[in-house]
Design a protein that fits this description.
- The structure is a single chain.
- By secondary structure, this protein is of the alpha/beta class.
- The chain contains nine helices and twelve strands.
- The longest helix has 16 residues.
Length: about 260
């Protein structure tokens, strides 16, 4: 068996006295699509943010492609936190798409997407623009390359944010409730793009409340509640025949 692309081991995260993650462990293989579902406050988004060290874990470890995330080894084998520069380089391997789009309002769509490849990736302006145009095509936003974000709908802005993540050429895509800030009629266009990326065989971890989408796209589903993994399995099993009363209750609420 090949080593997993992502390995999360005994992940804990506390904010003061509040323990949000209470020992979460899972793996993601190359090309695998993992969906994380659960109620608000269950720790899903905190878990995702900890994977690329936007939230520093209180305890536990994360490895991407066999390399520890966020920490490096000293000569004596002890661990030290990476510098901001080292962490920025490492994060390019994990393209993160947030609930909110975080686009630069003063930059065009093309410049928003090209910025990180130039600043962190070291590409020339021409190379970064060529890459931006390529990934904007993937998210069906080529026609808007010269627009500014305030001229775009929420769904279009989120597709630009996905293009920006793709421009990093990451090994793993992380989606944190990518449709939760959108008007209902705009959700479909974003889910279509994510489905197309999944069909390309991209590795992804998707935190979502779109249960039907998780059923269609994910290879595996994790249900979190209270900072722990309550249940996990293939979508056809876990979503159709939940084993725990807590997941049964959650799915009933989600389906109204």
């Amino acid at each position: 068996m090949p080593a997993p692309l992502l390995r999360v081991t005994d992940l804990h995260k506390s904010f003061g006295a509040l323990e949000v993650l209470k020992g979460v462990s899972f793996e993601v293989s190359a090309r695998e699509k993992l969906a994380i579902i659960g109620p608000s406050g269950s720790g899903k988004s905190t878990c995702l943010r900890a994977i690329n060290y936007l939230e520093r874990p209180s305890r536990g470890s994360i490895e991407l492609d066999g390399v520890r995330v966020g920490q490096s080894a000293r000569a004596d084998g002890s661990l030290k936190d990476m510098s901001d520069y080292q962490l920025a380089r490492q994060r390019t391997q994990m393209g993160m798409v947030f609930q909110l789009f975080h686009l630069w309002p003063h930059l065009t769509v093309r410049d928003n997407v090209a910025l990180q490849p130039r600043k962190v990736g070291g590409l020339s302006k021409a190379e970064a623009y060529a890459l931006a145009d390529e990934v904007l095509g993937k998210v069906h936003m080529s026609a808007k390359a010269d627009e500014y974000p305030d001229r775009l709908s929420g769904g279009q802005q989120q597709r630009v944010a996905i293009a920006r993540a793709l421009a990093q050429k990451p090994q793993l895509l992380l989606f944190d409730e990518p449709t939760s800030a959108l008007d209902p009629e705009l959700v479909g266009e974003v889910l279509t793009v994510i489905r197309e990326l999944a069909d390309e065989g991209r590795s992804m971890v998707l935190v979502t409340h779109e249960i039907n989408f998780a059923r269609e796209v994910a290879d595996r589903v994790i249900f979190m509640d209270g900072g722990v993994i309550v249940e996990e399995g293939q979508p056809k099993d876990i979503l159709a025949r939940p084993q725990t009363a807590r997941l049964q209750q959650f799915l009933r609420q989600m389906h109204g």
